[in-house]
């Protein structure tokens, strides 16, 4: 009961901004025939719809987190098996590099968790663990998102870049290799360095891609796109302020 009450409160708060629009829309449809009871009924129906949408979203989020935990459990089981194998075979020379690889992964995940904007951390971690991203993200030491506004702009920009790359990949038959993206602090803002794989067909597709559209979308969020040495198919940088 308590959980349901909390869900109703959240749904009601989410619905409040839309009340005037709903009332005006219903009134415009039915004019003077509108009654208070009808408006209340309409509001209840809309509120119910909001609750259903939120429940579906929460269920999807829970499923994602369960899937992430399962992936992590599987990864650590693999790590333990590899370590046990090296110890059993006394291949200590291979054990040290493998442990360093594990530590590097943990450090990157820790940096993602401490970016300072939870929605972005969640987005990057879930996509990374579920292998649902074509971006391989590296976080430079010391990167910290200044505020929620900057965090939202950064997340939207990363999503735009990801969508842009997916559209490019859709035009070529090669396997979808990961795109390297590095996030680093830069003059009070954040710089995204994007490196594309050195594939001939990918380079040609990138030259024909809608770079103007990407530039306009990023610019609308106080960002700037820079191309390295004028080569659209090699690398680019995006600065978020």
From TrEMBL:
Keywords: Kinase, Membrane, Phosphoprotein, Transferase, Transmembrane, Transmembrane helix. It comes from the Bacteria. It holds the Pfam family SPOB_a. The chain crosses the membrane at residues 12-30, 36-53. Gene3D superfamilies: 1.10.287.130. One of its GO terms (molecular function) is phosphorelay sensor kinase activity. Residues 55-114 form the SpoOB alpha-helical domain. SUPFAM superfamilies: Sporulation response regulatory protein Spo0B (SSF55890). This is SpoOB alpha-helical domain-containing protein. It comes from Novibacillus thermophilus.
């Amino acid at each position: 009961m308590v959980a349901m009450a909390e869900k109703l409160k959240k749904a009601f708060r989410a619905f409040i901004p839309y009340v005037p629009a709903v009332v005006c829309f219903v009134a415009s449809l039915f004019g003077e025939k509108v009654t208070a009871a009808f408006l209340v009924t309409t509001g209840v129906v809309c509120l119910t719809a909001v609750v259903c949408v939120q429940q579906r979203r929460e269920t999807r989020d829970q499923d994602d987190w369960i899937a992430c935990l399962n992936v992590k459990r599987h990864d650590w089981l693999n790590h333990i098996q590899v370590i046990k194998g090296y110890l059993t075979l006394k291949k200590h020379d291979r054990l040290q590099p493998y442990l360093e690889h594990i530590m590097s992964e943990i450090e990157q995940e820790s940096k993602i968790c401490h970016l300072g904007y939870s929605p972005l951390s969640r987005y990057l971690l879930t996509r990374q663990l579920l292998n649902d991203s074509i971006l391989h993200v590296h976080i430079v030491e010391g990167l910290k998102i200044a505020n929620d506004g900057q965090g939202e702009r950064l997340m939207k920009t990363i999503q735009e870049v990801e969508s842009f790359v997916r559209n490019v990949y859709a035009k070529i038959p090669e396997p979808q290799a990961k795109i390297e993206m590095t996030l680093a602090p830069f003059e009070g803002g954040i710089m995204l360095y994007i490196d594309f794989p050195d594939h001939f067909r990918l380079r040609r597709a990138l030259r024909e891609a809608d770079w103007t559209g990407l530039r306009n979308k990023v610019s609308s969020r106080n960002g700037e796109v820079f191309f390295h040495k004028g080569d659209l198919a090699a690398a680019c940088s995006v600065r978020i302020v």
